[in-house]
Specification:
The structure holds two protein chains of two kinds. The radius of gyration of chain A is 24 Å and the shape is elongated. Chain A has two domains: 4-233, Rossmann fold, CATH 3.40.50; 240-330, OB fold (Dihydrolipoamide Acetyltransferase, E2P) (Beta Barrel), CATH 2.40.50.140. By secondary structure, chain A is α+β, with helices and mostly antiparallel strands. Chain A starts with a strand and ends with a strand. Chain A is built from nine helices and 19 strands. In chain A, a hairpin with a 5-residue loop joins β18 (328-330) and β19 (336-337). A six-stranded mixed sheet of chain A has the order 6-7-8-3-9-10, with helices on both faces. In chain A, strands 13-17-14-15-16 form a five-stranded antiparallel sheet, with no helix packed on it. Chain A has a four-stranded antiparallel sheet with strand order 2-1-4-5, covered by helices on one side. The longest helix of chain A has 18 residues, at 166-183. Chain A is 26% helix and 33% strand. By secondary structure, chain B is mostly helical. Chain B has a single domain (53-288), classed as MetI-like (MetI-like fold), CATH 1.10.3720.10. Chain B has helices at 4-35, 54-61, 63-95, 101-109, 116-127, 134-141, 149-152, 154-179, 183-191, 196-223, 228-233, 245-255, 259-284, and strands at residues 38-39, 49-50. Chain B has a two-stranded antiparallel ribbon with strand order 1-2. The chains are: A alpha+beta, B mainly alpha. Chain A binds chain B through residues 50-52, 71-73, 77-79, 81-83, 85-90, 98-99, 102-103, 132, 146, 150, and chain B through 182, 184-185, 187-194, 198, 202-203, 206-207, 209, 290. Adenosine-5'-triphosphate (ATP) is lined by residues 13, 18, 38-44, 192 of chain A. The site of magnesium ion has 3 residues of chain A, from α1. Chain A: One of its GO terms (molecular function) is ATP hydrolysis activity. Chain A: One of its GO terms (cellular component) is ATP-binding cassette (ABC) transporter complex, substrate-binding subunit-containing. Chain A: This is ABC transporter ATP-binding protein. Chain A: Keywords: ATP-binding, Nucleotide-binding, Transport.
Chain lengths: 338, 290
Amino acid sequence: MGQIKLEKVTKAFGNTQVIPPLDLEIEDGEFVVFVGPSGCGKSTLLRLIAGLEDVTSGDIVIDGTNATALPPARRRLAMVFQSYALYPHMSVKKNIAFPLKMAKMPEDKIEEKVKNAAHILNLTDYLERRPGQLSGGQRQRVAIGRAIVREPAAFLFDEPLSNLDAALRVNMRLEISELHQSLKTTMIYVTHDQVEAMTMADKIVVLRAGNIEQVGSPLDLYRSPNNLFVAGFIGSPKMNFLEGEDAAKHGAHTIGVRPEHLRVIHGATTSSGWTGTVGVIEHLGSDTFMHVHLDGDRGTITVRADGDNPAKVNDKITVEALSEDRIYRFDKGGMAIR
Amino acid sequence: MATAHSRTAARFMIAPAVLLLLAWMIIPLSMTLYFSTLRYNLLMPGMEDFIGFDNYSYFLTDPAFFAALTNTLLLVGGVLLITVIGGILLALLLDQPMFGQGIVRILVIAPFFVMPTVSALVWKNMFMNPVNGLFAFLTKAVGLQPFDFLSHAPLTSIIIMVAWQWLPFATLILLTAMQSLDSEQIEAAEMDGAGAFARFFHIVLPHLTRAITVVVLIQTIFLLSVFAEILVTTNGGPGTASTNITYLVYAQSLLQFDVGSGSAGGIVAVILANIVAIFLMRMIGKNLDI
Ligand SMILES: Nc1ncnc2c1ncn2[C@@H]1O[C@H](COP(=O)(O)OP(=O)(O)OP(=O)(O)O)[C@@H](O)[C@H]1O
Ligand SMILES: [Mg+2]
């Protein structure tokens, strides 16, 4: 079991309110990702759930029991830190065994569990090494090993992949997802990388300045963002936003179109699209991203075109939305008009 | 420093410094060695004869020597024990967030800046004096007989004085080491179910081993040669109860004017220091490499 409920949780450091009253429900077995820009309170929220920080007010309920006043060790949660926080003077084996040793489990059972964890995480050959003698990815796995041997109600990850290089990050992302599928334990994962959020999550919680902007499945957030912030944050490259006349035509204060929902028409035509001059072109092989400066100083929009699109810098082109319902409309306050 | 050429050049450049340091050490050492083989008494000038190892056998068979040897080891060991344990406890205390932390830290460091003679005299006259001392006043206040520290427990008293002097040093080094501990490690241990004691013994103490090693090594060097505190308080007495090797060498050479025997004692002290150093490096030296 690993059901976590936050009820009107707030957190203030001195006079600065970092988390305004916040409600959130996390179901058993869910993979929840907290995502948001730097400094929005993701780590703070995770540490509140872990019990490493005290809530200023509100309640944290884990599996139906109020855990607000429980010390971290009694909440049955395991955490993987950004810096891994391995114990440098202990071997990999002792690191993984540490929580079991603290729980006063008999030696032979510890041995067995450590072996199991090491097997799952491909660490069997490194059990006698110290953390200092491991690569970043291996350290990451040791940290995860230390978390899984405890069989916690939920795992908490605080940007666990941010110290790894791009290729390894993709690998570890997959491994963590696979781990979730095999363990079926609740996982809460903090990241500021929306690609990680989109690929791993069952449920994404988008935070801004401590507020929850939207909660939903990755596709929910992609397809129907509640507001400008979520629309701009989810999806890569970012959604294009246009204001003024263009937006007024659609009866909105701001309209947004994703780069992948635009079509390129070569030359200037008078259709419903926008005409402009091609600026920077980024060739990714499979796709081409074009930054188009719209005529009449209406801004720049990014378009995703085919990898073999023949457009060149300074070409005059027209872009238009694939269909009318791919255009998102927002009112003056930035809320979506549905 | 990679090529053979630059290595030769480097050797050539540091040669003068090395030679100077070598002479600085070798000349006094060989003079001492030479004196230690002479019958050399300041009261009988001009009668220096070569007597081989006689000075050594006098010095080593002197009952005062064994007393001094034990006292030296007790002094070093006692002070190390007090300063390391006390230093860890104080560092733990000072590491807590509290009101007036900055001032408290300066206060803790203060004893290190007091000269040994001054601090020993303050302890002797203001605290331990059986008539006017603060301790006597306190014991009398609760109706007990004052205890004459310097005549009944001279070595312990000196250990206390010296430990008081060196406690700040240990505290300072250990506090810095403690502050370099990654707070996420402590938090991870907390989540792993380690209580305060388990956290201290499994995480904090192992993190401190290097700092403790440094404290022990540096302090041992200085504690083997404690002298001023003994000279101004007990003069090595009563009897030889608070005489260490350093003080014994002084007593031989300058109180009994026997330079030969004093020199032999000096050489013995050098050998003793080396034995202690070898033991220490064997026991804890491995903590220093990463
Ligand atoms: N101990 C503290 N004292 C005061 N303010 C703090 C403390 N810890 C965090 N904050 C503030 O709380 C806010 C949220 O911090 P938090 O670490 O949760 O951000 P984050 O979302 O994890 O950011 P990042 O992605 O950079 O890790 C920040 O504005 C930060 O300055
Ligand atoms: Mg963070």
